[in-house]
Design a protein that fits this description.
single chain, 2 strands, mainly alpha, 2 domains, 4 helices, two-stranded antiparallel sheet
Length: 148
């Protein structure tokens, strides 16, 4: 993590194409870290699945499947884009936009968990989010008043 903002990882920024010029170590670092996080999620899934009660096992599998499919899609498309760019096959990273197609899949799994199993106690979270948003809005209005 300490080497991320160095010239070894990101050499420069191409203003014309609005994108970074990656060093030779950055793709290896980024995708290795992503792979390790993916493996860590799988290990945690298996550990929690073994310890869970029968009613929570299906929820654990659905959530981890949604996360895994999203991360697998996200990192594989990113890796493919970096590899194609390094080979000179593509000249920009527009192909990385396809990595976000995994997000609706994850949100679908999450919505199913919330509706079917009432996961995450959404009523409480919704109330907390509303109160937090109101606090931010009130303080932002106060800051506008004080800055005048």
């Amino acid at each position: 993590m300490l080497l991320t903002p160095t010239i070894q990882n990101l050499k420069n920024f191409d203003i014309a194409n609005c994108g970074p010029i990656e060093g030779k170590y950055f793709p290896n670092y980024y995708y290795t870290l992503g792979f390790l996080v993916f493996i860590w999620i799988l290990i945690l899934t298996f550990q929690r699945y073994k310890k869970a009660e029968k009613e929570f096992k299906k929820q654990i599998l659905l959530l981890s499947l949604g996360i895994s499919l999203f991360l697998l899609n996200f990192f594989s498309v990113g890796f493919l884009a970096s590899w194609l760019y390094a080979q000179g096959i593509i000249s920009d990273f527009r192909i990385e936009q396809y990595a976000f197609f995994g997000m609706p899949i994850f949100l679908g799994f999450l919505a199913y968990l919330i509706v079917k199993y009432k996961a995450f106690n959404i009523k409480l979270l919704g109330t907390q989010a509303l109160v937090f948003t109101l606090i931010i809005l009130i303080f932002s209005e106060l800051s506008f008043f004080l800055l005048k």
